């Protein structure tokens, strides 16, 4: 018998499989279940136990990690009488991505059924799981988190407990993915604009990397100032930023390339300028969107 705690993984998409693989690799007796059969062959070959139903899966371990596409999917699996009954007195960690409100609502449902409930967010791609590069965020009752921390450590990397408020991990997730998806959409647009001038993705990529490295110090430097409502930026006033954005819009559209993302950004910058804050930096947009 393994000395490690048993764990169940529900959801065997790329991320669920990575989670189950990390638990197995760390020596945890691991039970798996997925809605569509056939995704657990490798895991079972490595010693995972295949459950025939979600209720059988959750009954196999004190801790169930759920990782499906979203909370509609996790509700579809968990919120059925036999599954809820089998979960009573056990704990669920929901690592599916969704909104803070869905996490809060699920925690209330779990409390009503005597189920321990933790929420989490995975901030790095599936191949990082179980390595030093994994980044996971957790929130929910501290005692429950402490009770399962050792098992969750198998997932590797940097794992941060953000506190008792159950929606906290999802709130960070939403904010961080906001950065990621707008940045990657900007990159996709940049590749299209570069292609219009005969520049390949391989030619642009090293310089794109340079642009990305400019951002982390800006996040660090501005954070305390933003929290105070200070958006002063003598080096890069938003008037200058809006002018550059207009060049990108004109150039894209001259090539017949949709510039709606940059038009939206320029529109926000122009509203800040119109409100009399043209001498401030771009982050003044934060105040426009959600005044303190
Ligand atoms: P997906 O987001 O594509 O989710 C696939 C999983 O969801 C499968 O197990 C699928 O089951 C299940 N599922 C979908 N709908 C339902 C339903 N109605 N009922 C039951 N199960 C359902 O794959 P990932 O594994 O990549 O992602 C899982 C979660 O992890 C997501 O929330 C994602 O945002 C998050 N994540 C993923 C990362 C990655 O690198 N992949 C990185 C960071 C976070 P079936 O096989 O039966 O369709």
TrEMBL record:
Pfam (any one): NAD_binding_2
Protein name: Dehydrogenase
Domain NADPH-dependent reductive aminase-like C-terminal: 166-290
Higher taxonomy: Bacteria, Bacillati, Actinomycetota, Actinomycetes, Streptosporangiales
Highest taxon, organism lineage: Bacteria
InterPro entries: 6PGD_dom2, 6PGDH_NADP-bd, HIBADH-related, HIBADH-related_NP60_sf, NAD(P)-bd_dom_sf, RedAm-like_C
6-phosphogluconate dehydrogenase NADP-binding domain segment(s): 7-163
Record GO terms (molecular function): NADP binding; oxidoreductase activity
Keywords of this entry: Oxidoreductase
SUPFAM superfamilies cross-referenced by the UniProt entry: NAD(P)-binding Rossmann-fold domains (SSF51735)
Family classification: Belongs to the HIBADH-related family.
């Amino acid at each position: 018998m393994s000395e490690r705690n048993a764990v169940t993984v529900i959801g065997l998409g790329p991320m669920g499989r990575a989670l189950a693989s990390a638990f197995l690799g760390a020596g945890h007796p691991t039970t798996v279940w997925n809605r569509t059969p056939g995704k657990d062959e490798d895991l079972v070959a490595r010693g995972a136990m295949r459950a025939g139903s979600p209720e059988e899966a959750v009954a196999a371990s004190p801790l169930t990690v759920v990782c499906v596409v979203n909370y509609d999917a996790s509700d579809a699996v968990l919120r059925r009488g036999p599954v809820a009954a089998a979960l009573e007195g056990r704990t669920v960690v929901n690592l599916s991505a969704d909104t803070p409100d869905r996490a809060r609502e699920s925690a209330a449902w779990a409390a009503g059924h005597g189920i321990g409930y933790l929420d989490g967010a995975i901030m790095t791609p599936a191949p990082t799981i179980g390595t030093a590069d994994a980044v996971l965020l957790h929130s929910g009752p501290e005692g429950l988190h402490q009770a399962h921390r050792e098992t969750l450590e198998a997932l590797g990397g940097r794992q941060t407990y953000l506190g008792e408020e159950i929606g906290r991990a999802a709130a960070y997730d939403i904010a961080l993915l906001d950065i990621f998806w707008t940045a990657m959409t900007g990159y996709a647009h940049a590749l299209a604009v570069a292609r219009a001038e005969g520049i390949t993705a391989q030619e642009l990529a090293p310089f794109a990397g340079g642009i990305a490295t400019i951002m982390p110090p800006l996040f660090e430097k501005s954070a305390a100032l933003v929290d105070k409502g200070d958006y002063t930026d003598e080096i890069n006033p938003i008037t200058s930023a809006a002018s550059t954005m207009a060049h990108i819009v004109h150039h894209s559209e001259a090539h017949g390339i949709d510039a709606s993302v940059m038009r939206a950004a320029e529109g926000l910058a122009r509203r800040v300028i119109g409100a009399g804050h043209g001498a401030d930096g771009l982050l003044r947009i934060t105040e426009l969107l959600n005044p303190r």
